[in-house]
Amino acid sequence: MVFSKSILGLSALTSLVSTCACVDIIVSSTGGNVTNGHQYGFLHEDINYSGDGGLYAELIRNRAFQSSQRFPATLEGWHPINDAKLSLKNLTVPLSESLTTSMNVATTTGQGNLGFYNDGYWGIDVKASNTYRGSFWVKGAYASRSFVVSLQSRTTGELHVAAEVESRSVSSQWTEHKFELTPLRDAPDANNTFAVVFDASGAEEGSLDFNLISLFPPTYKGRQNGMRVDIAEALEQLHPTLIRIPGGNMLEGSTKNSWWDWKNTIGSLRNRPGFPGVWGYQQTNGLGLVEYLEFAEDLEMEIVLAVYGGLSLNGDTVPKDQLQGFIDDALDQIEFVRGPVDSKWGAIRAELGHPEPWKLRYVEIGNEDWLAGAPGGWQTYKDYRFPMFLEAINDAYPDIQVISSGSVFDGYDIPQPGAGDYHIYAEPDTLVAEFGKFDNTNISHIIGEMAAIHPNGGSGWNGPQMPFPWWGGAVGEAVALISYERNQDRIIGAAYAPIIRNLNRWQWEITMIQFTADTVIRSTSWYVWELIADHIMTETLPASSDFDPLYYVAGRNNKTGDYIFKAAVYNSTGGADVPIKLAFEGIEPGATAKLTVLTGPENPYGINDPSTGVNVVKTNRTTVRAGESGSFEFSLPDLSVAVLETRSP
Ligand code: AHR
Description:
The chain is of the alpha/beta class and 649 residues long. Among the domains are: 5-35 and 540-647, Golgi alpha-mannosidase II (Immunoglobulin-like, Sandwich); 78-216, Galactose-binding domain-like (Jelly Rolls, Sandwich); 243-286 and 302-418, Glycosidases (TIM Barrel, Alpha-Beta Barrel). The protein is 15% helix and 29% strand. It has nine helices and 33 strands. The strands form seven sheets. It has an eight-stranded parallel β-sheet with strand order 19-18-17-14-3-22-21-20. Strands 2-26-27-28-33-30-31 form a seven-stranded antiparallel β-sheet, covered by helices on one side. The protein has a five-stranded antiparallel β-sheet with strand order 4-7-12-9-10, with no helix packed on it. Strand 24 (513-515) and strand 25 (520-522) form a beta hairpin. Helix 8 packs parallel to helix 9 (524-533). The protein is globular and about 90 Å long. The site of alpha-L-arabinofuranose has 11 residues, from loops.
């Protein structure tokens, strides 16, 4: 939808038009479009150790020695204590069919204490206020003895906390042991380890076998097997209203034998085999479908659920005569998420503790089929894969909006009632140049992945990227978000991707939030998205001015009755401030509004550098009052992002 000076129906307002040397904007009270009310969010997939070692709160790395053809089992993360000899074993009695490899801990002297420690995902955050809940499975004769579990510092050598766990371990089967640890003091840093020690003389066979060794801090909203609190809070504070899961490339998997199979991600952790991640590491499947859905529920986010669409990253494509199995699988998945408790998969969901169906209105088929599959796989997507999924899902669930993994801009004449998905990783100039991109398409789209990643002048997927989100890039993202919001009658929402990154091991540079074991750093983009997402419009409204260098959208939240104006200034002439005169039909002289303006550092390439912790984004909040003409008058600096919201009397 384009709202320009030529718009009709503003006659009642023309008396308000002034001749100021400013951008003179008059917002009509009628004639706009209803939005879908959930406009901003993110894609989460396990990239950058952002699932295991990130959002997923498990502290123990390589807790179950999971492996795949691509990633053989290793002892990564595990270290011997005293004379222990650690080795991997595939016992004839494994912990489960899914967890077949375990760690054998053997004594070489038969005396004293021995054991092992884990150094976590590049450290373990230890806080006195936390109770850490752990468990491990053991096999081997070790009667009437105990294990000692502890958290200790590698920096100071100090023991933060230790506990004795009475052994019930026997030779014939696996036995689970549970414990709690409440440290007496905060550790000085994250350089901590978790250890399990036992008495060599009690291990009758000279060794014990361990598996699924797990330790959780308190999780976000206290969910079992849940999310890391500080990362979840940084996401919650973004006011996200949608989440796209579970990827991205991760959904597709590397080959046709290794896509992200949701059935492997539900139920007991003992029954989750893990997943050969596409980002260079084996994943635990601990952050599975239910955990994602619960997280969406906790943050009240609309779910955009991607189902495997028959294409993997190496270009493997499912032939037409074999596709039905995958369609059935997707239908099962949807039934699991939102089917009644008396349906097959709804009953399984209930057994897993969630009888209430989740709300699910958006299902995406595959991911970027125009990319990994091109040209043949993309053609199969258009020829039969998307149409078959679309028909089957809408036959069973007419209210579900099925989304294609490509957009009309990827050369897809999307069959209706399907929607499209547009991804853009670009330089800020490109994001701004695309301001009108969705003005003239009638097909619904989600912007399923977006971020400014290149400095202006850079291009392509593999061109030079910025090390972190930077202020100028964030303003470019604001312009793009505003352009999507102007078309909210047809834009399902916009998702930042990828959203978080472990600074110790990552594959993708530009992410909105960076973290280590004990820190979370919000980037410049975080502040921009937070501000824009904090003001939800239920209706966009026609306004009377052109764009450039001021890009804006106006509308109203019909629940509060407040008018909302969102704007960004990108490259004003000579870097000058842009004076604005803003009138809303029905807003009287003297009315007040809250104006929030974000500005950045002098250097537009300035970043929120994790090594300094300095936030370069400045937030200015003021109350402005409508003058005699009923207009709010204020100026916005170049490279700024602003939101004005009127206050209901
Ligand atoms: O967001 C990172 C990756 O970029 C996603 O997995 C993929 O869909 C895109 O190519």
